[in-house]
Amino acid sequence: MTYCLGILLHEGLVLASDSRSNAGIDQVAKVNKLEVISQPGERVIVILSAGNLATTQAVVTSLREASSGQGLGLPEDDLRTAHTLFDAATTVGAALRRVVERDGQFVKAFADPSASFIVGGQIKGEAPRLFEIYSAGNFIEASARSSFIQIGETKYGKPILDRALGPDTDLAEAAKLALLSFDATIRSNLSVGPPIDMVRYRADSFEATVTTFEEQDPYFRLMRQAYAEGLSALVNSLPAPP
Amino acid sequence: MTYCLGILLHEGLVLASDSRSNAGIDQVAKVNKLEVISQPGERVIVILSAGNLATTQAVVTSLREASSGQGLGLPEDDLRTAHTLFDAATTVGAALRRVVERDGQFVKAFADPSASFIVGGQIKGEAPRLFEIYSAGNFIEASARSSFIQIGETKYGKPILDRALGPDTDLAEAAKLALLSFDATIRSNLSVGPPIDMVRYRADSFEATVTTFEEQDPYFRLMRQAYAEGLSALVNSLPAPP
Question: Which of A31, A40, A48, A121 sits most deeply, having the most CB atoms within 10 A of its CB?
Answer without folding.
Answer: A48
